[in-house]
Structures are given as structure tokens and as C-alpha cells.
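tool_call: predict_structure(chain=1)
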Amino acid sequence: RVPDMDSVAIRIFADHHWRRVRCLPSHELLRSFFAHWTRLEAICKALGEGVDSLEHIEGRIDASAWTIAE
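tool_result:
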């Protein structure tokens, strides 16, 4: 578990995403947390913004305009 995961996620992730993720079993929660964090970080970089822009970036982007490959 990440220290202060809840406070980080509340600040960074969209409410609907964190509500869905936080209900996962602990082994899936950590993977999902970091996968989503990495996606948001990649979007910030693609937009030419720093990771400082992570906070609530989901409210400022059109997710349908992006394709994410894992």
C-alpha cells in the first residue's frame, strides 16, 4: 500500500474513478492505482505539461480523444 494513497487519489483522480478503484481487493488496488497514475502522467507529458498538471487533469481532457495501449 502507498502511504496516503487516499489523499493522493482524491487530489489527482476523478471522483468516479477513485470510487470504483478503492473497492478493489488490495492486490488489484495497488496495480490499478499505479496504472491510472501512469496514464494520467503520460497524458500530461503528451500535452506538454509537467506532472504538476496531474491534479484533476481528468476534468480538463476529452478521454475519447486518446488511445491507451498497455
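agent: Helices lie at 5-12, 15-21, 26-46. Proceeding to next step.
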